[in-house]
Amino acid sequence: MEVSDMEDQRSADSPRNRLGESSSPYLRQHAANPVHWREWTDGAFDEARRRDVPVLLSVGYAACHWCHVMAHETFENEQLAAQMNRDFVCIKVDREERPDIDAIYMAATVAMTGQGGWPMTCFLTPDADPFYCGTYYPPAPRQGQPGFGEVMDAITRTWEQRRDEVTVAGAKIADHLRANSESLPAGPALDGQLLADAIRSVLADEDPRSSGFGGAPKFPPTALLEALLRADELGGLGAAAETATRTAHAMARGGIYDQLAGGFARYAVDSDWVVPHFEKMLYDNALLLRAYAHLARRGDATAARIADETAAFLDEQLWTGTGFASSLDADTEGVEGLTYVWRPAELVDVLGAADAAWAAQLFTVTDHGTFEQGASTLQLLRDPDDPIRYASVRARLRRARDTRPQPDRDDKVVTAWNAMAVTALAEGGAALGRPEWVRRAADCARGLLEVHLVDGDLHRSSLDGRVAVPLGGLDDYAALVTALLTLHQVTGRTEWRDDALPLVERMIEVFADPEAEGAWYDAHGEGLLLRPRDPVDGATPSGASLAAEALLLASALTPVIEDAARYTDLLDATLSRSGLILAKAPRSAGHWLSVAFARVAGPLQVAIAQTDDSPGTMAATIRRGAPGGVVVVAGQRDSLPLLADRGPVDGADAAYVCRGTVCDLPVGDANAVLASLR
Predict the structure, then answer these.
(1) pLDDT, position 219
(2) In the structure, what pLDDT confidence band is assigned to residue 189 with cuts at 50, 70 and 90?
(3) Structural domains of the chain ordered from first start
(4) What is the pTM (predicted TM-score) of this model?
(5) What are phi and psi of 306, to 5 degrees?
């Protein structure tokens, strides 16, 4: 268990809720509960041993609808809280601040119940072994589900009367989790055939009616969209880009996308993208911005609009001054979707009868409703026939909606998610000619370095400009390396590279498995039941696949030749361990596929040698048209390693294209460069 000095200085006998000073807004939401919540510390488990009671672990996050429901129904219930306080030591964890703890006990929950989700409720021994796990429990029996009081009664009786069974069960589950945390076996080097087979498997799973993958609930395939675009550009698989485009358009037109203010919800509860689960997460919007900006570079007007609106959403609704906030809540004043849904009469009140009728048809606002109680989410199933009228209607609806109660915002700044936003804004801004995006990316990256990097160690999060205690995981290090090296590419400023490379070394030192080359741990793991690692890409890319991307860029951009070779070897060893996922579960390997396509293609690097008075036209054209995953730098002769001994030709900018360690002759025509990259 990780020790907090402040926490352990307090008396273990102090019978009060201790979340008021937490660095997590989610934990602060529970500070007024009558439950004597504690944070995850050694002191909490010491108290459980001293009192000889189990630990009740509750894990959730600020934007979670059912977390709020259980909080109001159960944790604010004086009788149930008294039972919790009497029979357990109660620990609250923010899964976003402590993904390591969440990963361990979610694996236990899935192992015991066959499914998982949040809120997650686990009962542990004082040695942190889980022996009974579940998710949401109602306060009283409901629809065949036991009430939480009954569950706690049963746990307490078992603990008191059949302790040996509890101990054995907890130990078995712990052993099972440790066995499943072994690294994936190393496989053969990746090749085009393996990647093509993986993409074909993904394409076969496309929803033929509504696009996307899977049924209800339907999640945006965030990392997979970028992989599908690269499969076309670097692998010649045109059907992949067609699938990505269909899915991107379907999501953009559905209720999962905020048609008035931009930004995507976490998922749709139906299979047609109509009704969102209304929480908006930074990580979804950062990853989707990267994919939509990439699609926009290919000339897709819808994608260009969505990229622009999503970037505006990040800036207007999530920017905190030092970084981007983690999420907007699913609920407003305890009601899911209250801020966002509309009824026909409400349109009339805002727009007048004529414009309301037009808007209702355009946005699919019906008398029966598409959501609950006659309300509708806004969709945009076709382009408006009158763009000027559309702009006016949209602006008036947005102003009216802004006067409604608004969802709470989790202002916690998470390193990995902010780094993903930096990469998307910098990459997209440079390619689409949006310098303000690049400036905001630089602001965010600077904030992460100034606040989250302490004495060489990266921390997971901060709140109100103050760094939190939990250390960063593999995903935090790797995503930030990629973000900084992306800024280095698009700005030409070497300080971004110089900040990134020590983080690469620290990432390898802390998280690379010394006994299995190419395998990685996701977290530090001190004091935990096990050291978690999961190479599968989920709602966010896995730490290992993010590490692969970081190594890919570092190998191309480091000025030290020996380091480039070392990073390349580790990259290849890392990618070799993704083979099983690519072969068996390619839909869960979106980011792996993106990195693998870039690696198998060369990797490709373009160095643009510019004249002293270069207008930057060649660089801008290449940035806009280059396939995803291609490293592009521009500057004067000898200003960067890729420009060593490479200068303009005949007084004009010239581009040098390299595939791995083999480089072509300089080319003065940007379009010819782009043709050679595909």
Answers:
(1) 97
(2) confident
(3) 5-180 (3.40.30.10), 197-211+284-327+410-599 (1.50.10.20), 340-404 (no CATH), 604-677 (3.40.30)
(4) 0.94
(5) -65, -40
